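Regression test case RT-17, inverse folding.

Input:
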């Protein structure tokens, strides 16, 4: 299993993520962004970060473009979390997808958000061959989420 993780820089954590989270908490839908809250696997405290919620073929997904991040590790341990948009809070359960299930999902994710996350996919984009999408799949955890 891959352990790839691309740590965000200070501009991302201190400016971009905070700004997007500020907007989303006030109900502004920024290209499908939500604030994800998941219980920390070590601390037990709720941890939050903005994420892109992908709706594909009528189901909801979270994809980790930066790889095996802290929110991914926490979601694996907890199996559930919350998504927030404004005052609406949606609880969910999550099931991690196997790498073979990801190519179509990664294609849809890149089609929608390549401008934002494309640099994390090693030159693979929505028009890439399935073999290329399968090659990068282990580096990008994905979860099917079921809203409660």
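Golden output:
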């Amino acid at each position: 299993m891959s352990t790839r993780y691309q740590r965000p820089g200070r501009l991302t954590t201190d400016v971009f993520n905070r700004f997007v989270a500020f907007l989303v908490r006030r109900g502004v839908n920024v290209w499908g962004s939500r604030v994800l809250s998941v219980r920390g696997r070590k601390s037990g405290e709720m941890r939050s970060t903005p994420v892109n919620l992908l709706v594909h073929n009528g189901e909801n997904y979270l994809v980790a473009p930066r790889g095996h991040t802290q929110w991914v590790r926490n979601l694996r341990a907890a199996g559930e979390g919350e998504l927030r948009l404004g005052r609406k809070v949606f609880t969910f359960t999550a099931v991690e997808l196997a790498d073979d299930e990801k190519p179509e999902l990664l294609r849809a994710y890149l089609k929608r958000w390549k401008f934002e996350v494309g640099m994390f996919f090693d030159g693979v984009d929505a028009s890439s061959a399935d073999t290329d999408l399968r090659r990068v799949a282990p580096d990008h955890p994905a979860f099917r989420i079921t809203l409660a």
